[in-house]
Amino acid sequence: MKRGCAPYVEWLGQKENPQGKGWAAGEKYGEKILSILKAVMDEGKVQFMESLTLSVPYMVRVSIPDLNIRRGPGTSYPKTGKFTGVGIFTVVEEKDGWGLLKAYQEKRNGWISLAFTTRI
Fold first, then answer.
1. Position 112 pLDDT exceeds 80
2. What's the chain look like in SS3?
3. Contact 92/105 with Cβ under 8 angstroms?
4. What are the tens digits of pLDDT across the range 65-75?
5. Could you tell me the pLDDT band of residue 30, with boundaries at 50, 70 and 90?
6. What is the pLDDT of residue 26?
7. Other CB atoms closer than 10 Å to residue 70's CB: what's the count?
8. In whole angstroms, what is the distance from residue 89 CA to residue 44 CA?
């Protein structure tokens, strides 16, 4: 393979590359990469093999003592008057950069901004 012979992801497969010099021998290799990327961007998850899903639930670390918990996923929702405190928490759902905490899953009224967390 010659460096630079596939300036487009779609040309990574040798069969799709006009020069026949793509990186992969597999058919539609570039299209498969783009479909994985689209799944990540659109849905926040990727499915491959036997329905392996990279999504929620997962754990986050909060390093500030006063991260607000809100009744919905956004600053337009009222604060609950509670804070997470410093610690590790389980997020069971994501929406628009906000995470629903496991402890609030039943009533769905405990959301935190994921911008103030570190995924672990």
1. yes
2. CCCCCCCCHHHCECCCCCCCCCCECCCCHHHHHHHHHHHHHHHCCCEECCCEECCCCEEEEECCCCCEEECCCCCCCCEEEEECCCEEEEEEEEECCEEEEHHHCCCCCCEEEHHHEEEC
3. yes
4. 999 999 999 99
5. confident
6. 73
7. 19
8. 19
